[in-house]
Design a protein that fits this description.
By secondary structure, the protein is mostly helical. The protein has a domain of 42 residues. The protein is built from four helices and no strands. The model has no long low-confidence stretch (mean pLDDT 88).
């Protein structure tokens, strides 16, 4: 009887240790993810773009630390030129986006149009915020 109680306690302790480890691991992961997301969202748009590029390349190509640093440096070096071209082409791009929106809206039903208008407005606000950062 005592031997059986000892086994039950041992199993309960092991389960407790396992659960404590799982909970603490989950909590730590959530803290790290929250920090990384907050850091990314608070970064300037250029930094978000650079980090996104490096992350995408790293995920597919498994870059070395040296390669990641080199890719970041190359992207940052060309950012001013990219941004200049984006600013110059923005009026033309805005006109194209507006025309496409008008054409899309024209094929929607009267019930769909208000929802589309709201979606287009939110998309444009996000696009504007990203280019202003």
């Amino acid at each position: 009887m005592k031997d059986r109680r000892t086994k039950v306690w041992a199993v309960l302790v092991l389960v407790g240790v396992f659960l404590a480890g799982a909970l603490s691991g989950t909590g730590a992961t959530l803290l790290v993810v929250r920090h990384k997301v907050r850091t990314l969202l608070e970064a300037p748009a250029a930094e978000i773009e650079t980090r996104g590029l490096v992350l995408a390349l790293d995920r597919r190509l498994r870059l070395t630390d040296t390669q990641r640093a080199q890719v970041e440096a190359i992207h940052r070096k060309h950012l001013p030129e990219l941004n200049r071209v984006r600013r110059q082409s923005e009026p033309e791009l805005a006109a194209i986006r507006a025309q496409a929106s008008r054409e899309i809206r024209a094929v929607l039903t009267p019930q769909q149009q208000p929802e589309f208008d709201e979606m287009a407005k939110k998309f444009e606000e996000r696009r504007r915020l990203m280019t202003e950062r």
